[in-house]
Design a protein that fits this description.
Blueprint: E1 7-12, H1 17-32, E2 40-46, H2 52-66, H3 74-81, E3 84-88, H4 97-111, E4 117-121, H5 130-137, E5 148-152, H6 160-171, E6 179-181, H7 189-199, E7 213-221, H8 230-234, H9 237-255, H10 264-277, H11 283-288, E8 290-296, E9 298-300, E10 303-305, E11 323-329, E12 339-345, E13 352-359, E14 377-383, E15 387-395, E16 403-411, H12 423-433, H13 442-461, E17 468-471, E18 505-506
Parallel strand pairs: 1-2, 1-4, 2-3, 4-5, 5-6, 7-12, 8-17
Antiparallel strand pairs: 7-13, 8-11, 9-10, 11-12, 13-14, 14-15, 15-16, 17-18
Helix pairs in contact: 1-2, 1-12, 6-13, 9-10, 9-13, 10-13
The structure holds NADP nicotinamide-adenine-dinucleotide phosphate.
């Protein structure tokens, strides 16, 4: 394991939700596991008026509510909180960054943090190009022999052009190897386990190609709606919020070639090749292979639930998609002709993210019956109930040859004493260690946007393009099933529809 260097983690947007719910609780959990550097400080930066004490009080509450390892460890909590500091500056104002520089120098002197800084941008995205520039104006972007890294939260751009522009503006002051673009899906153990499943088992990889795989399904379903993020979401939608980043990252892990070593360049090179091989959607594909939907008011288990257009800060005539399903191909030797189906949506019956590999059925249905030759299915469950599940045919005891589909499964929860770290723990630790493997490289990010951009353009130019209403608690628009070709083949439904209403409509 790499040596972890003494450093200050500077969190911009420290008064916000992400810092409170995810970042500081994850840091506390790292501290409990003794994974933080010996000399380590957190400096929260935002405009709000906090003292060190009042900020620590707020963070204490965040840790108590959201840390996985708190378990009433009051003494450790107090000690950890004493390593947290707060600085109020106007983050929009370049001249305020001289105050930040002085504060960092003071922390270095007092706490031996040695001039190493990791900057975490957890602010509104409009500040992503500005903060790095203002840091550079104070010479905080580079110093010989010192760590200067920057983590950028999602969303990284709102379209291809804005992503390219943001990359260019960051690269004006930081080198690519100093830039860590966050995609918290990559920090999930189960996503990394996809590489281990594929490349440490000799039985899967020989089958992992067009000869044996019929199709691949990637699902990220949420049961909640937009909650209090209506304003942000209405300008974003499911394609930008989930597909461009998380789902395409999962696709890259499923489809990439084995890297020559487990190292950041090797893995990220292979992922880039996948993005470069995705077949661009033609005009015809945009009509037939992309289904968008929006949840509408309906009864869920007898209770009336509001639709998307009734959500706070959402345009009552909004055509923003809260659901998208698409069919795509990767035009390379391994995957030629294998369809990949991606879907994500809000207000679906359950929260689940999974990758499902559907193997081709055996060449002959020897035993007859529905379940006797379905084709095996490998489900890689990313959340919740993380694990791996292989569906296989088994003879039902008794006379004749009746076949039943059964599961061979592993759940992470079975590893009773093994702690499953949160994605933010893993990713923060990696950035502190200087390992960018699980962060997105600029070229791959632009490549992913290149695939998505024609869909955005099409919707922009054709606002009347179909948008299907689906009831809250259902699995999305009915038309999404028709994307998947083949007799009796539909999406995998990990649980039943919860909606009492069968209302589906075009909006
Ligand atoms: N929350 C999540 O679960 C989550 C998940 C994934 C990604 N993200 C991303 O992470 C970033 C932070 O999310 P968040 O949920 O923590 O947002 P938030 O609650 O709105 O916090 C943003 C923070 O930025 C600060 N800020 C600094 N300059 C600002 C300015 N000019 N205008 C407005 N605010 C300014 C605000 O503090 P002051 O007003 O005190 O300056 C505020 O505390 C966002 O880009 C979001 O997309 C969040």
């Amino acid at each position: 394991m790499k040596q972890i260097t003494d450093q200050v983690l500077v969190i911009f947007g420290a008064s916000g939700d992400l810092t409170y719910r995810k970042l500081v609780p994850a840091l506390f959990d790292l501290y409990i596991q003794d994974l933080l550097p010996e000399n380590f400080r957190v400096l929260g930066v935002a405009r709000s008026d906090f003292s060190d004490d009042s900020f620590r009080k707020k963070m204490s509450e965040g840790i108590t509510n959201y840390s996985s390892l708190y378990h009433s460890r009051k003494e450790e909590l107090d000690y950890f909180l004493s390593s947290i500091h707060y600085l109020s500056i106007n983050t929009d104002n370049p001249s305020d960054y001289s105050t930040l520089k002085s504060e960092l120098e003071q922390l270095d002197t007092e706490y031996k943090t040695d001039g190493n800084y990791l900057f975490y941008l957890s602010t509104p995205p409009s500040l992503y190009p500005l903060i790095p520039r203002y840091l550079a104006l104070q010479g905080l972007n580079k110093k010989e022999g010192k760590i200067r890294r920057i983590i950028i939260e999602k969303p990284f751009g709102t379209d291809l052009i804005s992503a390219i522009n943001l990359n260019q503006s960051l690269l004006a002051d930081f080198e690519e190897d100093q830039i860590y673009r966050m995609d918290h899906y990559l920090g999930k153990e189960t996503v990394q386990n996809m590489l281990v499943t594929r490349f440490s088992n000799s039985i899967y990889e020989p089958l992992w190609n067009r000869n044996f795989i019929h199709h691949v399904e990637i699902t990220a379903a949420e049961s909640i709606g937009v909650e209090n993020r209506g304003g942000y979401y209405d300008g974003s939608g499911a394609l930008r919020d989930m597909v461009q980043n998380h789902l395409l990252q999962l696709l890259a892990f499923v489809a990439m070639e084995p890297p020559s070593v487990i190292g950041s360049d090797a893995i990220r090179n292979e992922k880039l090749k996948v993005f470069q091989a995705i077949r661009p959607l033609s005009h015809e594909n945009l009509l037939t292979d992309v289904i968008r939907g929006q949840y509408i008011a309906s009864k869920v288990k007898g209770v009336m639930e509001g639709g998307y257009r009734e959500e706070k800060n959402v345009n009552p005539e909004s055509r923003t998609e809260t659901y998208i399903a698409l069919k795509m191909f990767i035009d390379n030797w391994r995957w030629g002709g294998v369809p990949f189906y991606l879907r994500t949506g809000k207000r679906l019956p359950t929260r689940v993210s999974e990758v499902v590999i559907h193997f081709k059925p055996a060449p002959l249905n020897l035993f007859g019956g529905d379940e006797s030759n379905r084709g095996n299915t490998l489900v890689m469950r990313i959340q919740p109930d993380e694990g791996l599940l292989l569906k296989t045919g088994m003879k039902v005891p008794g006379s004749g040859y009746n076949v039943k589909e059964v599961n061979m499964d592993f759940h992470y929860s079975q590893l009773q004493d093994t702690y499953l770290p949160s994605a933010y723990e893993r990713l923060l630790l990696d950035a502190m260690l200087g390992d960018p493997t699980l962060y997105t490289r600029g070229d791959a990010l632009e490549s992913a946007w290149s695939f998505v951009q024609p869909i955005l353009d099409y919707w922009q130019e054709n606002p009347e393009a179909p948008l299907y209403g689906y009831p809250c608690g259902s699995w999305g628009p009915e038309g999404a099933d028709k994307l998947i070709e083949g007799k009796d083949i539909t999406w995998r439904y990990p649980c039943k529809n919860l909606s009492d209403d069968g209302i589906y409509c075009e909006l």
